[in-house]
Write a structure and sequence with these properties.
The protein has about 230 residues and is α+β, with helices and mostly antiparallel strands. The chain has five helices and eleven strands. The protein has a five-stranded mixed β-barrel. The chain has a three-stranded antiparallel β-sheet with strand order 8-11-9. Helix 3 packs across helix 4. The N and C termini lie close together (about 5 Å).
Length: about 230
């Protein structure tokens, strides 16, 4: 697709030592992160998807695992310094390209918080990161994590409730519209109970199985293909 380069960002890693300076810059097609809490703090990275050669991708992977800081920027997002907390999950692969001697290396790194699919004891304070702002996706992600008894038709109500109570906040994103949702299972069950009693939302009368048609543009990387 023409002008695909306008829709991708960059990730840059720099490291100084007495003997040398390391500077690596790679293409980044997806990013999810948080602004730092204080002005001079480092932001938090939740997902990066980057491409490069063997050496560069290996160095970026090592930097994410050891908690090093790196600089990211992208369309509609200012340059920001971020790092991964705790132990992130990483996935590496190769992409064969015609007329290229060596394959392109692909690295995806996900924070431990984003990778959490089911709530645990440490989730009582309530933080859920969602990769897409669509109401159906938000409800599906939260319901799956906490095991909530919901139906897809409640998605608009749920996001409206989050917005009204200021329990949803936009995160930094490149080629996605991520958000962070605040609340735990007890809180969301209370909202559902009240809404059902007031008939704001209705429980289906039939016993048919629930089908989730979750819309999300997060996985559609074909729009970034510059081969056309």
């Amino acid at each position: 697709m023409k002008n695909a380069y306008l829709r991708v960002g960059t990730l840059e890693f720099r490291k100084w030592s007495e003997a040398s300076t390391t500077r690596i810059k790679v293409t980044m097609d997806r990013f999810i992160g948080e602004h730092p809490k204080k002005k001079n703090d480092i932001g938090k990275a939740h997902l990066i998807s980057v491409y490069g050669n063997d050496q560069n991708i290996g160095a970026i992977w090592s930097a994410t695992v050891t908690g090093e800081c790196f600089q990211v920027d992208g369309p509609g997002m200012p340059s920001i310094s971020v790092r991964f907390d705790q132990e992130p999950l990483s996935f590496r692969g190769s992409i064969a390209i015609s007329n290229r001697k060596w394959p392109l290396r692909h690295l995806v790194v996900i924070s431990a918080e984003l990778a959490t699919t089911h709530a645990g004891d440490h989730d009582d304070y309530g933080r859920t990161i969602v990769c897409d702002s669509d109401s159906g996706f938000v409800l599906y992600r939260v319901a799956t994590k906490f095991g909530l008894p919901v139906v897809p038709d409640w998605a608009p109500w749920f996001v409206a409730e989050l917005t009204k109570r200021e329990k949803i906040r936009a995160l930094l994103g490149v080629n996605c519209s991520p958000n962070i949702v605040y609340g735990n299972k007890a809180t969301f069950l209370r909202w559902i109970s009240i809404a059902v009693k007031k008939k704001v939302i209705l429980i289906p009368q039939d016993n048919e199985s629930i089908h989730w048609d979750v819309p999300t543009s997060f996985g559609s990387i074909n729009q970034l293909d510059s081969s056309d």
